[in-house]
Amino acid sequence: MKKLLPDARVYAWDNRSEKFAGGKVHAKVAVADDKICFISSANLTGHAMEKNMEAGVLIEGGQTPKKLHRHLEALITTKQLMRA
């Protein structure tokens, strides 16, 4: 993905407290700006893309892209999400 989208910032939930040890983030979200976002169940693996049936939603406009962007920025600022 980094090769195809070199300017994309990718983050992971690596800084788990003991309470969440072993937990995983299954949500996949992409935020372009405060106006458009993509939320999906799809894993970004070859198997998932070629053999699984996945679903996602592209949201343009309204409050959802803005709220999701702010939420992700807060998780990054508080170091809950770290650059992958």
Q: Name the helicity range.
A: 10-25%
Please tally the β strands and state the result: 5
How confident overall, as mean pLDDT? 85
Largest sheet, spatial ordering of strands: 2-3-4
Briefly note the structural class of the backbone.
alpha+beta
Q: Count of helices?
A: 2
Radius of gyration: 14 Å
Give the helices and strands as they follow along the chain. EEEHEHE
Main beta-sheet strand count, sense and barrel state:
3 strands, antiparallel
**Weakly predicted, low-confidence segments:** none
Residues in β-strands, percent: 15-25%
Give the overall shape, derived from the CA principal axes. Answer: globular
What is the terminal separation in angstroms?
12 Å
Task: Compose a concise summary of this entry.
By secondary structure, this protein is of the alpha+beta class.
